[in-house]
Amino acid sequence: MPDRDESTESRIEELFHALLELPPAQRETYLAAQAGIDDDTRQQVLEMIAIADDQPDLLEPPVEPPAPERLGKYEILAETGRGGMGVVYRARDTQLGRDVAVKVLPERLARDAQSLERFEREARLLGALSNENIATLYSLEVDGGVRFLTMEFVEGRTLAAVLREGALPIDRALQIGRQTARALAAAHVRHIVHRDLKPSNIMITPEGLAKVLDFGIAKALGAAPEGLTSAVAAHGPLTTTLGTPGYMSPEQLRGGMVDHRADIWAFGCLLYECLTGVRAVPAGATVPATGEDFPVPDLTRLPDGLPTGIRSLLEGCLAIDPERRLDSCAAICETLENIRVSGGTAGRRRLRPVGLALVAVTVLLAGYFVGKALTDGGADQPALAGASTAESARTALADLTITTTPAAAAVTINGRYLGRTPLREQVPGGDVVVRAEMPGYATVVESLVLKAGDGVERMFTLVELTGDLLVESEPAGAVIILDSRRLEAVTPQRITALPVRQAHTLRLELAGYRPADLGVVEVVADSLLSMRHRFELTTHPLAVYSKPTGATVVVDGDTVGITPSRLPALPRGAHQLTLQLAGHVSQHRPFVVPDDGAALEITLAPLPPGQLDLRIVPFADVWIDGAKQAASTSYFTGQFAPGRHVVELRHPVYAAVVDTVVVVSGETAKIPYTLSNGRSE
């Protein structure tokens, strides 16, 4: 079987967890519907599921280390939640004196590059969102190698906990739906899809405010919005099956293309559950391979007294075919706002799926031009009723012109998306709330009273959002290169007022250490991002050879090896090399990192010999270091290399004498021996 790459292993893990959520009878069908899965992958997933079914203890989560007592300036108070992409703690910001949520990537996932990338992507996506119905991100920080997010701590209960008590009153359900739709609309205008919207990811505060949580598997679609790196948006078509069965759209369950309409499906499921107290798609429902047989939510279970338009809204959200599904969360917001304003009657504008809306607009335009052609036939002809109605509708509108600096801001009125500036639109008169938004800039919100027939011009200057960056290094004193520009300051340094609408590059340089490219850095508005780097000594690939080999290598007084040897990592600058070998003259040589090339070759000269003078009584054969030097002699002299040598004297009658002597270079060692008594005094 060929080796699998990381993407295949990740796909196997995703499929495994998705199948665990399904009844056993549906797993084969689910796998058959997934695109791009080979037989080997399918077989391994099924084998993993079989093992999990036989040994459920294997599914117990690994034991994580105890919660830290402190992370940076945050005092950890208690664990509040644990999910696939992190552990969430309630913590106290000891500097600002407020409680925050701290989300930590578990140690077992921090070693996985894909998990780490997904965790940091969540920070970048949350940093691009600013909405009262989305938990606010404060910072992305690192402390002691632990990466964590700090976010707004939301008091309250999850919507899942609320729904365990049953269906909600209609007004309350619509209120939660309205606020959830606002959060999704804010994300979608920045091309961000949540992909895992469900009751457990919505927190309800004691004041009744709904906040959407956990963008851990969200992705950016299409072109990267300003303020997001290309790495976030360059994941290609969204075909990975991530999410929670029961709230995943049909196309998402089958591993097909996923866009913002998957969130609209999940929103429909959520609103249906709020109104009925049961899931739109039961947990045990079969997931067919084709859309025609997909289980259709039972709208007959909706409560009596539902405002006009809600049933059709749910039908549009829960259309099996994404092409027939509602296309805009901003339009959903407008519909729900209209229902609230009108006290439960149909709103000023009925929401339709995109295809039907286009047909309706075409019919209206056709009627208008037919009426105009007939009335233009002569001044004496009476005006047609249709033309009169069109004229009345036209005069009931106000002419609104909006420009911004900079241009291309997204404009919404009462939650309805109009377009990008500069724009001119005919809008109904009355009280309106105008919002101009652009990634990287503070949102402008203004309330206007528009009178029918008036022309209103508004010009907004968008204020650029900025954040601060704290750069630290160990050792300190590193030169900071930000966006290819060398700063005068060195680490540690707080860099203020960096624009959040662009990604920044960061590089640190310190003499004697390996330069550090810290990659793309994205600051968060009105927050401090901390970056800390520990430098590594420069590795100098210098090899040392000696003739003869076996010499001890000493660098700057420390023994580092035996020749031939490659030197360890050394800082830049001058160093002292010494080679030592018995019987040879030690060599001392200065060298400079990194200017001395790839290798040093040093020849060690032998030391001058010393002399042995042996006087023997009566006589003997002389052996030195196991080699015979003389026979039956009473006197022996010879030169030998400095160092220890073994002298052996052999006689046919007397016992042999064995002795170890030391020869010193340039000196003579005179040693007498008497065989009868051994070595003489």
Describe this structure in a few short sentences:
The protein is of the alpha+beta class and 681 residues long.
Description:
The protein has 681 residues and is of the alpha+beta class. The chain has eight domains: 6-59; 70-152, Phosphorylase Kinase, domain 1; 157-345, Orthogonal Bundle (Transferase(Phosphotransferase), domain 1), CATH 1.10.510.10; 352-394, no CATH class; 396-465, Carboxypeptidase-like, regulatory domain (Immunoglobulin-like); 480-523, no CATH class; 543-603, Immunoglobulin-like (Sandwich); 610-679, Carboxypeptidase-like, regulatory domain (Immunoglobulin-like), CATH 2.60.40. The protein has 14 helices and 38 strands. Helix 1 packs across helix 3 (39-54), helix 7 (170-188) runs antiparallel to helix 10 (260-276) and helix 10 (260-276) packs across helix 11. The two termini are 80 Å apart.
- Percent strand: 25-35%
- In the CATH scheme, the class of the largest domain would be Mainly Alpha
Number of domains: 8
Helix-and-strand structural type: alpha+beta
Large-scale geometry: elongated
Number of strands: 38
CATH topology of the largest domain: Transferase(Phosphotransferase), domain 1
Largest sheet: 6 strands, antiparallel
Q: What is the level-2 CATH architecture name of the largest domain?
A: Orthogonal Bundle
